[in-house]
Structure formats: structure tokens, C-alpha cells
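Sequence in, structure out.
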Amino acid sequence: MAHYNDVQKSLRNFDPATLPEAVRGEYHGDGTTIDRIIVKLDFRLRSPLNLTEQEQHQLVAFLKALTDPAARDLSGLAPATVPSGLPVR
């Protein structure tokens, strides 16, 4: 939520040290790259939302309420076989 609350600030202040070491070298966070990303942002994300911390927490709680706990494990929905005969993994 904090990222979407102020995308430009989040992009400019991102700490690549938070990335797993294996991908850290792939991060392109130089000013030119960030500026190109910001220009292509959806217009709704270019300006900060200015949500308070409480509003952010309330929004997260709302989004979590939309998720059925049964949807966390959908492995029981995988069929044992398929008509094509291809293996099911």
C-alpha cells in the first residue's frame, strides 16, 4: 500500500539491498530509468494518493476480506487426468 500511496517517491527511494542477492544485480534504478517509468505510469498513479496510515490499513483489511480462505490452497481442484492425456503436475 505504501508503494501505491506515492509511487514516484517509492521508486526514487527504493533500496535494492532489500532484493535477494541473486537478483540484486538486475536492478536498474538509475534516475533516467526511473524517469522513463514515471512518464509511462497510469495517470492515476502519477499523483500521490495521500492516504493516511490508518486508511492504508483499512484498505488492506478490506482487500483481505475479499479473499475466501478456501482459495489459499487450490491443489484439490487439479484433475487427476485431462482429455488430451498430457500429464497433470
